[in-house]
Known about the structure:
Layout: E1 6-8, H1 16-31, E2 39-42, H2 44-53, H3 57-64, H4 72-88, H5 93-108, E3 121-128, E4 144-149, H6 151-163, H7 168-176, E5 186-192, E6 198-203, E7 214-221, H8 225-228, E8 235-240, E9 246-250, E10 256-261, E11 264-269, H9 272-275, H10 282-299, E12 303-310, E13 313-321, E14 343-344, H11 358-381, E15 391-394, E16 397-401, H12 406-416, H13 420-447, H14 456-500, H15 518-534, H16 537-545, H17 548-556, H18 568-582, H19 601-611, H20 618-637, H21 642-667, H22 673-689, H23 704-716, H24 724-738, E17 745-746, E18 751-752, E19 755-756, E20 772-774, E21 776-779, E22 782-790, E23 804-807, E24 823-826, H25 834-842, E25 846-848, H26 853-856, E26 862-866, E27 871-874
Parallel strand pairs: 22-23, 23-24, 24-25
Antiparallel strand pairs: 1-2, 2-5, 3-4, 3-5, 6-7, 6-12, 7-8, 8-9, 10-11, 12-13, 14-16, 14-17, 15-16, 18-19, 20-27, 21-25, 22-26, 26-27
Helix pairs in contact: 3-4, 4-6, 4-7, 5-6, 11-14, 13-14, 14-21, 14-22, 15-18, 15-19, 17-19
Amino acid sequence: MQNPYILPLADPQAVLETVGGKGTSLARLSAAGLPVPPGFHVTTAAYRQFVAANDLQPAIAAALQDADVTQPATLETVAARIHALFVQAAIPADIVAAIQSAYATLAAGSENATRTTPPVPVAVRSSATAEDLPDLSFAGQQETYLNLQGAAAVLEAVKRCWASLWTARAIGYRLQHGVDQAAVSLAIVVQALVPAAAAGILFTANPLNGRRDEVLINAAWGLGEAIVGGLVTPDTYTVDKSTGQVSAREIADKQVLTVRTAQGTEERPVPEAQRQARVLTDAQVAELAALGRRIEALYGTPQDVEWCWAEGDFFIVQARPITALPEAPTPIEWPLPNPKGQYMHAGLADLMPDPVSPLFETLAIPTIARVGVKEVLRPLTRSEPQLPDYIVTINSYVYINGTYTLREWWWILTQMILSAPRMLREALPLWRDQIRPRYAATVARWQAGVPEALSLTELWAGIQELNNAAMLHFSSLLVATTGASAGAEMLFTNVYTRLIRRAGEPAAPVFLMGYDTTPIQAEKSLYDLAEWVRVHPDLAEYILHTPSADLAAQFSTPSLLPAPHSLLPDFYARLQTHLNAYGHIVYDLDFATPLPLDDPTPMLETIKMYLRGAGTNPHERQQAAAEKREQAVAAIRGRLKGLRRWAFEQALKLGQTMAQVRENALADIGLGYPVLRALLRELGRRLVQGGSITAAEDIFWLQVDEVQKALTALERGEPLVNLAASVAQRQARHAALKRVSPPPMLPPRKRYLGINVEAFAPVSAESQTGGTLKGIGASAGRVTAPACVLHGPEDFDQMKPGCVLVAGTTTPAWTPLFAMAAAVVTDVGGPLSHGSIVAREYGIPAVMGTGVATRRIRNGQTVTVDGSAGTVTLS
């Protein structure tokens, strides 16, 4: 009769109930003939007998009564109580005998075993009955012990594995996922330890992009624990699943490896010769990919596989389903509005890097394209503009329309180009003296009302008027500030570089930095608030140790304020003052995107950063840049005369004027957004009451004609069309579109109208396949540091001092993060984008327009940013 406490590794009875998730997987792999190290299972029956013999279950149940997943401290207390029970309990004698016998058999079966052979080293791995399941992996919740030698060491590890079923992390994980705590039990896998020279993880589908036709392999030297524990950045190989050919490889600087020692394992430095050497050859990668195909075929679903390599052979030590695999990308067509047209995803992509919302696409974009730009050009050219829609959307991404008819070309040549001197003189005053004041007046008028008190007609009128004013203001910036400042900086740079600069003299950007712009003022405001907090130690301590989400909740709901902190109301009043002044600065142009005013969490994180002593003092930084600028100007003026002095002065005046105006104008874009969003949300609430949508915010996922039809129906007292399904479909489509990289040019080309568009457009995703990403060098310097990949303000709390800031784009609202960044890398942007300007202000390297940085770079991955060469090297 077979012992109930022990099963051979590939035994048919090795199922979930008897050997847990990990054990079941290894049994199946071994039975299928895959290269799995030999071993045996300590079954769940042994665990249950251990618990029963020591009468532990009542005490465990009693302890769990105090576990509250919302209060981590209770989990730690409960775990400590249960752990003490296991430490004091004894393993029954029959279980001890069964494990000793199985271990002896394993040792006797090892190659070259003799009566004098030392005890065989083994790995002892926990295998819970709620583990490695198709929908929940429970990865890392229980313990693994490596390089154990002798039956006594194995028995001690078995007991510690049993206890690890009740760590705070494991208890909390099961509570969060609704797993019955009384029903779980633990088996254990004991396997001969492979003396691995290299190890890693193989994904039989690409977990980064969801592609099922790709295999992703991570590899590092030594045992696999350094990778699993996140102690080393491994090599990464992307492989074509069908052919086994490597399509991309990233060779890391591998600084740590896990090795066997007499006492177990330890981490040691990787020998210098191996640190940057590739771990696997292409032939080995192909062999591993073939094993991955066999394993996926065995399970019928993509697998996360742990492997190791020793003495010329690969071994599989674990396989489980990939639980967080993105949806497989579907091929996306990019239909051209005009089949013979030319479209470029640049310039505007700085402010609209992602697909825009349906309401913005159908309400705001047409206002910019068909009204705004033309209303700005009309007074400047003294003629009726003959232009196509300046911007269009393709798959909800914004593209500049570079397609012109003969009539439009004639107007450009005879009116617009000939009006260029007037435009340079009058564009800025037009924006400053007419369009911006009109925008501000419109905002003030609607800000005075109460959205809830407005009629449907008044709500819609306010939404249209604010949208028109905001988009006209933005259109004026394209001509008067954004475009003009780009031209002014290019003009000054060319004049200075070609006619004036001598070896050793400052670069051109130095002459345009150090101004007290609105984004800098916002940064100073947060810094000053942090300094005020610093002089109140108790308040500083409370803010530093309270999660920012909790602080934000207190800010929005004053009744949550804890009584002992009497200065909190004053702090929140000062924060409100900051938000009133700067909370409208947009993250992107789409009015569906929440504003800093809507969620102060990122600002609270910035305040904490300053309280910790990280970042730089923005007052000192700006003053230093201003002094450097003035010294550079004085030095050049001191040696120039005649025509070159005149050219320098004229170009400098224009460049410096536009450098100041540009950042202020960008910060003003969202001036009306708080009121506009409030009116839209109020209209959304009324559509919810009418049964059209399920939440007020869903209005941003409607198209303008749907909103107008709903308004008409509400005014007539007619039933509304239920658009909830359409909203859900659009949200899903939007999420899918965000995962793709829009082509920088449609159709693709390097030059257009004689202009090298590669200097301004993001690099195409298809060309970024190696270990070095190419982009546009926007701020000189070279830095090697870990990456912090931020997809939006919701990730701001992940930014760490000294890291490389990696983002889709950066707008003025991102400025405080530059105080912590060692360098900046973006998907879109160019040498004159906001991020480039701020990076030069901070004196940190920047590479813009890589196209794929947020998709190719992993959080924490070491990268080398070369702002002079325009490259980002992945380690």
